[in-house]
Amino acid sequence: MKYRRFGRTELQIPVFSCGGMRYQYQWQDVPLSDIPEENQRNLEATIERAIALGINHIETARGYGTSEIQLGQILPKFDRDRLIVQTKVSPMEDSQDFRKTFEQSLKNLQLDYVDLLGLHGINTDELLDYSLKPGGCLDVAQQLQQQGKVGFIGFSTHAPTDIIIKAINSDRFDYVNLHWYYINQFNWPAIEAAIERDMGVFIISPSNKGGLLYEPSPKLVELCKPLSPMVFNDLFCLSHPQVHTLSIGASRPTDFDEHLKTLDLLDRTSEILPPIIERLENAAISVLGEDWFKTWHVGLPTPEETPGNISIHTILWLRNLAIAYDMIEYGKMRYNLLGNASHWFPGEKAENIDRLDFNPCLSRSPHREKIPQYLAEAHDLLVSSEVKRLSQQ
């Protein structure tokens, strides 16, 4: 395993972290006695394999159902000084509810402290205010820190980049968990802002949200050769020293295997990556056109600025991926979350757009005339049954 300095925490964090949202039994809390023995054995085998590989950063959240209580059966068996344990608790209007929820997390984990506490899902200005206001959740987290129950404090986010940067610029967090990978590089300015403040940078879900890379499209497989899409994406992310760790949402011990192939290639990124990136870009340009490929995102409105609260940027992005790389299943998975995922994936689908006037909100876009048609095409291509966030399933 290779390690990187996790910003001002000074922790040496493995470049791969063991995320805790896919091996648990259920997304809702249930008594430990209701958890099947087979599921618990699989979780424990996954953690044991992670530790054996040097992946000593174990990451979970109060919102991950039975994950914490199941981890509480295995983590106390390891040398505590060898572990970096992170849990996350969502910001709440009443900061004392936040405190009680954290105390439940600690009880579930059967630990005296966590190394990292993340304020989970600072996705809106309101949730940022719950965190930063005097007497708010961050003040409570710092009190827990002073009591020795928390090492360092960060936040996780699915927010628009400007809100992420606002949270970073508060200079009150030690690290950030955010989305950034080859197919979604929009948050790079937030990563740069975090590095300016010497914060740790943790990439959320690079293999799932980064393109369903456990089951990539055949076209993406071909374009990424001689690497698998998963190894290419890992290598792309880790070729940037500003990125410190990638979350592997392992569901079984073998889920680490493909990722491990990245480690021996890290010293050769300048040789390996450019031809693959060029091939990916040329493939997209050949289908989408160079002007659209380079400028499609310019001047797009937010959902709040758009009639019907339609998430134009997200929909066009998913259309691009579906057309350029045959990432239809990924596009469907993400598109059909729109309207069902609250602030975790805001905005609505492009339904009934023939009744809406987009001219005012698209006035800054060089592609204002094409976009309504492209939105309709994307809806026809990607719409299917509604998709819920994993925590709602």
TrEMBL record:
Highest taxon of source: Bacteria
A Pfam cross-reference name: Aldo_ket_red
InterPro entries reported for this sequence: AKR, AKR2_Oxidoreductase, NAD(P)_OxRdtase_dom_sf, NADP_OxRdtase_dom
A GO molecular-function annotation: oxidoreductase activity
Domain NADP-dependent oxidoreductase: 39-167
PANTHER family (alphabetical): D-THREO-ALDOSE 1-DEHYDROGENASE (PTHR43312), OXIDOREDUCTASE (PTHR43312:SF2)
Name this protein carries in UniProt: Aldo/keto reductase
